[in-house]
Amino acid sequence: MSFLTLTNASFAYPNGYKAVDRVNMSFNKGESVAIVGQNGAGKTTTVKMMNGLLKPSEGDVVIDGWNTRDYTTAQISRKVGYVFQNPDDQIFHNDVYSEIEFGPRKLGLPEEQVKANVMKAAELAGVVPFLKDNPYNLPYSMRKFVTIASVIAMDSSVIILDEPTAGQDLPAMERLANLIETLNQEGKTIITITHDMEFVVNNFHRVIVMANRQVIADDDKRAIFWNLDVLERAMLKQPHISRLGYSLGIGHNILAIPELADELAKHK
Amino acid sequence: MSIITIKNLSYQYPISESDALKDVSVTIERGKLYALVGANGGGKTTLCNVIRGFIPHFYKGDLRGEVLIEGKDIREWGMGELSQKVGYVFQNPFTQISGVKDNVFEEIAFGLENLGMEPGLIREKVDQVIRMLEIDYLRDKNPFELSGGQKQRVALASIIVMEPDVLVIDEPTSQLDPKGTEEVFKIIELMKNKGKTIILVEHKIELIAEYADYIILLNEGEVAMQGSTREILTDERALTFGAALPQYSLFGMEMRRRGMDLGSIPLTEKEAIEAVKTWMKKGVNA
Ligand SMILES: Nc1ncnc2c1ncn2[C@@H]1O[C@H](COP(=O)(O)OP(=O)(O)OP(=O)(O)O)[C@@H](O)[C@H]1O
Ligand SMILES: Nc1ncnc2c1ncn2[C@@H]1O[C@H](COP(=O)(O)OP(=O)(O)OP(=O)(O)O)[C@@H](O)[C@H]1O
Ligand SMILES: [Mg+2]
Ligand SMILES: [Mg+2]
Question: Where is the ABC transporter domain positioned along the sequence (chain A) (predicted)?
Answer without folding.
Answer: 4-237
